[in-house]
UniProtKB/TrEMBL annotation:
It comes from the Bacteria. The gene is argC. GO terms for biological process: L-arginine biosynthetic process. It catalyses: N-acetyl-L-glutamate 5-semialdehyde + phosphate + NADP(+) = N-acetyl-L-glutamyl 5-phosphate + NADPH + H(+). Belongs to the NAGSA dehydrogenase family. Type 2 subfamily. It comes from Paraburkholderia megapolitana. It is found in: Cytoplasm. Transmembrane segments: none annotated. SMART domains: Semialdhyde_dh. This is N-acetyl-gamma-glutamyl-phosphate reductase.
Length: 308
């Protein structure tokens, strides 16, 4: 029996390079990419995508939509790492830990949309708590995140690693129009009735994310506090291979969060911090934006799909 053919379309971007690196030594699949001279040849790309078993799209949104439109072979399955299809009802959301049945849905799906890096942390924190009724669906949620500059793609990497790197900003908050493209994705898959306020930023380091969600317990369901929220998250992710909830006694002694601590892994660490006196709680997620936030998630989804 021949090995399944996996075609990476767009293997020269930050996510595509990472996925290619993770897959190129595997013997259980045949990995296909296009040579540089053929990457913009629409007929050659259409030929490659229709000849594969699973296509992984690491393309801008418009190019991802064009690639999907070019598929005429009904057997071809797709993992789209762009944001083109993340809120589409006929695509399966590729966050295996999101709900108990999600791994099976991904394993049997023909169209899987890889989560965004920031939404991975936000949804990972919020979805279980909203589903349990601990945070009201209409709660005014604010989300703050800082990512390594690789989250900005090749242009940001060039800005920080190219010849003018000395002039790169040490820190920058962006999305000041409060209309970041990840916000609808977060709202939909977290189960929020209201659009959250999302404030993203980049730091002058290559990769890694710290994402935080501050909460005032007086606005939550009755008798909900940091301990209640932590217990819910711990139950939800018990046994998960790549999402871990830091025990309360460990988070209680932390003085800072290092966005780079899980770099090079496909893991995400969730924590709950509380100030009982003031009635404040801080939820946090730390993970590699190129790992669990991108390439690691794509490979996790691929492995589920190959297992079928």
């Amino acid at each position: 029996m021949s090995s399944p053919v996996v075609f990476i379309d767009g293997d020269q971007g930050t996510t595509g390079l990472q996925i290619h690196e993770r897959l190129r030594g595997r013997t259980d699949l045949e990995l296909v990419t296009l040579p540089a001279a053929e990457r913009k040849d629409s007929s050659r790309r259409a030929e490659a995508i229709n000849a594969c078993d699973i296509a992984i799209l690491c393309l801008p949104d418009s190019a991802a939509r064009e690639a999907v439109a070019a598929i005429v072979n009904p057997a071809v399955r797709v993992i789209d790492a762009s944001s083109a299809h993340r809120t589409q009802p006929d695509w399966t959301y590729g966050f295996p830990e999101m709900t108990p049945g999600q791994p099976e849905r991904i394993a049997t799906a023909h169209r899987v949309t890889n989560p965004g890096c920031y939404p991975t942390g936000a949804i990972g924190l919020l979805r279980p708590l909203l589903h349990a009724g601990l945070i009201p669906a209409n709660h005014p949620v604010s989300i703050y995140a800082v990512s390594g500059y690789s989250g900005g793609g090749r242009a940001a990497v060039e800005e920080h690693e190219g010849p003018d790197a000395a002039n790169a900003p040490p820190y920058q908050v962006y999305g000041l129009e409060l209309a970041h493209k990840h916000t609808p994705e977060i709202q939909q898959h977290a189960g929020l009735a209201r659009r959250p306020i999302f404030v993203p930023s980049y730091g002058a380091y290559r990769q890694g994310i710290v994402l935080t969600v501050p909460l005032d317990v007086r606005l939550l369901a009755p008798n909900v506090d940091g301990t209640t929220l932590h217990a819910c998250l711990a139950r939800h992710y018990a046994g998960a291979a790549h999402v871990h909830v830091l025990p309360l006694h460990e988070s209680a002694v932390l003085k800072q969060l290092d966005p780079q601590v899980l770099n090079g892994t496909d893991d995400m660490r969730l924590s709950v911090f509380s100030n009982v006196e003031h009635g404040h709680v801080l939820l946090s997620a730390v993970f590699d934006n190129l790992g669990k936030g991108a390439a690691g998630a794509a490979v996790q989804n691929l492995n589920l799909m190959l297992a079928r």
